[in-house]
Amino acid sequence: MVDSGKQVYTTLNNGIKMPLLGLGVYDMYNNEAEQAVDWALKMGYRLIDTASMYENEIEIGNAIRQSSVKREDIFLTTKVNNSEQGYDQTLRAFENSLKKLDCEYIDLYLIHWPLKESRKNTWKALEYLYETKQVRAIGVANYLLPFLEELSTYANVVPAVNQIELSPYLFQKSFLEFCKTQGIQLQAYTPLVRGQRFNDTRLLELSKKYYKTPAQIILRWAIQHGISAIPKSVNPIRLQENFQIFDFEISANDMEWMDTFDENLRVVEDPMELL
C-alpha cells in the first residue's frame, strides 16, 4: 500500500494503482447521485464504483466530466448487469455503459453476479475487452471460493479485483489470505453493515479509545487489512466522516480483536445460492 496524502493506494496484479477507499453509488438516482459524486471528488475520493444495474451511470459520468479532477486521476468501476450476461451480450453491455458514462475508458469492469448459465462466457468477454485495451482491469463480484476455483479452470487472466460483501461482522480471514496469494484484491461493499452494528459495545469501546466514529473504526479496520472499501452515502457530513480515516491507526491487538467480531452477518443475498 502507498499512502498518498489523504488516500491509500494498492497496486493491482497488472501493475495499475487503485485507491483502497472509494464511494459506492448503489441506490442513488438522478441529481442525488451526481451531487454525491461531486462532493466526494471535492473531498478527495478518487474511486467511484457504479454498475449498469444501479441505473445511474449517466449521472456518474456527468459528475466526473464536470469535476475539476482529471479523468486519469479517477478510478471508475462499473459492472455488467445480470440480464446482460453472455459473450455477445456483455460486449454490448460494455458499449452501453461506456456511452452512458460518456468516458473514453473504464478502469475496472466486473461481472456483477456469478450466474451459473452465463458466467464463463461473460468472463471470456471481459478478457476480450481487457486484451483489446478497452478496459484497464477486469474482475468479479460476489465470487466466493467455489466460484474462484471454477473460474481458474478456464480463465486466461486472473481477476484484478473481487468485490464481495465483507465487514468485521462477515469476515472470512482465510478467504482474504487466499485472494492475497492469488494476487486478487478484495473489495468490500456494504462494509458498514448499513449501520446495523454501530451500537455494538465493543465497537463503541474502540470508538471511544481512538476518538473516532464506529464507521471510521470499521473502515480503518478494512484498510489496515489491505481490503478496499466502498461505503455509500449521499450525506456530505457522512461522506467526509468516511474519508477521515487516514490520520490514525488501530493497534495490532485491537485488529485481532475486531477479527473476532465475525458472526456471518449478511445484509445482501448469499452468492452461494447461485452455485
UniProtKB/TrEMBL annotation:
It comes from Arcicella rigui. InterPro entries: AKR, Aldo/ket_reductase_CS, NAD(P)_OxRdtase_dom_sf, NADP_OxRdtase_dom. Pfam families: Aldo_ket_red. This is Aldo/keto reductase. Belongs to the aldo/keto reductase family. Keywords: NADP, Oxidoreductase. The keyword Transcription does not apply. Residues 30-262 form the NADP-dependent oxidoreductase domain. It comes from the Bacteria.
